[in-house]
Amino acid sequence: MCTNAVTSILIVDDETGIRKSFESFFTDHGYNVFSAGTAEKAMHCMEQNKLDIVIVDLILPDIGGEELILKMSCNYPELKFIIHTGSVDFQLSKKLKEIGLTERNVINKPQTDMNNFIRIMESV
C-alpha cells in the first residue's frame, strides 16, 4: 500500500490541461509529482527520479502508452502503473497482464472523482 507522504507519481499525458490538473490535485494531497507529455520525456524522468507510480495515457505523440509501460516495467519492475484512457473499448493486452496489470489498473477518461486515483494507487 502506498502512503502519500513518500509516494512519487509520474503523470504521462500529451494533454497539458490534464497534466496540470493532476499535478495540482496530487500535490495538494501530499504526493511528489512529476509530469511528461511524451514517452521520451517520461523515460528521461524515470532515469532522474525515484518513482513509485506512473499514470499513463495510451495515446502519446511518440510511442504508445502500452509500449511505454512495457519498457518501464522491464527497466523498473517495482513500478506500479495506472492506465488513464479515453478509449471505452480498451482491453488489457496479454503482455500487460503478464506484467501484473488487471482491470483495476485502468481508469477511463473523463474521471469526475479524482479520489478514485488515490483509492486505486493504494490497492495496486
Please characterize this protein's 3D structure:
This protein is an alpha/beta fold. The chain has five helices and five strands. The protein has a five-stranded parallel beta sheet, sandwiched between helices. α3 (65-75) links the parallel β3 and β4 (80-85). The protein starts with 7 loop residues before the first strand and ends with a helix.
Helices and strands in order:
Layout lengths: L7 E5 L3 H13 L3 E5 L2 H10 L4 E5 L7 H11 L4 E6 L8 H5 L7 E3 L6 H9 L1
Parallel strand pairs: 1-2, 1-3, 3-4, 4-5
Annotated CATH homologous superfamily: Response regulator
Order of helices and strands: EHEHEHEHEH
**Annotation field: number of helices:** 5
CATH top level label: Alpha Beta
Q: Which descriptor suits the 3D outline? A: globular
Radius of gyration: 13 Å
Strand order of the largest sheet: 2-1-3-4-5
Terminal Cα separation, in Å?
7 Å
Could you report the average pLDDT, rounded to the nearest whole number?
A: 92
What is the β-strand count? 5
Structural class: alpha/beta
Unreliable sequence segments: 1-5
Strand content: 15-25%
Query: Could you give a short account of the major beta sheet?
Result: 5 strands, parallel
Task: Kindly state the percentage of residues in helix.
Answer: 25-40%
Please tell me the CATH architecture by its name.
Answer: 3-Layer(aba) Sandwich
Total of domains: 1
CATH topology: Rossmann fold
